[in-house]
Each structure stands twice: as C-alpha cells, then as structure tokens.
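Dear Dr. H.,

I hope your travels went smoothly. While you were away I took the liberty of generating a structure for the chain from your last submission, since the lab meeting agenda had it listed for discussion. I wanted you to have the full record in hand beforehand rather than looking at slides cold. The sequence, exactly as received, is reproduced here:
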Amino acid sequence: LLCLFASVPAALVVRFFSGPTLKHLYSIAAGGTICWVAYGGLHASLNFWGLTLASYAIMLALPRKWSGYGVLLGSFTYLTYCNMSSPGTEAVDFTYTLRALVLKMASCSMDYQDGALPHDKAQHRMYANRLQHLPSLLEFVSFVFFPG
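The corresponding predicted structure, in token form, is as follows:
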C-alpha cells in the first residue's frame, strides 16, 4: 500500500519526462518494485518476469495469426500450474496478481493478432484495438507491469 501511495508523487514527476522510454522505464520500475515489496522478493518476481518474457517470446516465435492463442494457452496453463502446485504455501498468494498480469498479456497478444485481420473481416472493437506492429520488449513489459 505504501508503494502505491508513493507512486502518486513520482507520477507527477514522470509527467515532465520528455520521451516515452523514460515513461516505460518508470512503469517497469514502479510495477516491479510494488511486486517485489508486496510479495516478499524473489520467488513471485521471478514468476512475474518469467511469464512476461515467455509470453513475449511466444508472440515472436509463433505466426501472427496464432500468437494470441499461444499466449493464452501458455499463460493460463502456467497460471493453473501455479495455483495447483503451491496452494497456501506463500505468506501472500502471488497468483492473484499473476492473474491480472495474464489478462494484460493475453489482451496485448490478441490485439496484436487482430492487427493481421483485413479491415472488412474485423469487428469494430477488434479494429479499434488492434496493434499494427509487435510492440518492443520495453513497451510490452511496461504495459504488463504498469501499476494501474
């Protein structure tokens, strides 16, 4: 809770950053710090970072028309594994936050997949939210870890 309140004054400073790279780095630093402090360090953070990087690798490796499905399958399979492998063994259950991160990763990958559809085959919502190009790793991680 303290990290969340501390991010408010820091966000006021971020408004004066001149480029998107600094804003992306702030999002990663703020979200990563909140995860680290809230869940007690390394174990949960490795799960968050590992799944995020694996999802981006899936988006890179699979053909665009299958990347969204690959991220959905991979991330939900891993989330299920985390829920079943250690129920109640952590002081604070990190899988609740992992669920939110999975939804963010899945939405980004599906929007990237929708970007390959021709305009006449895409529904209005799909067309409005599509990603024309694969986001950079910095943009993707910043989107996933943004604490908001």
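Two observations you may find useful: The two ends are 13 Å apart (CA to CA). The mean pLDDT is 82.

With kind regards,
E. W.
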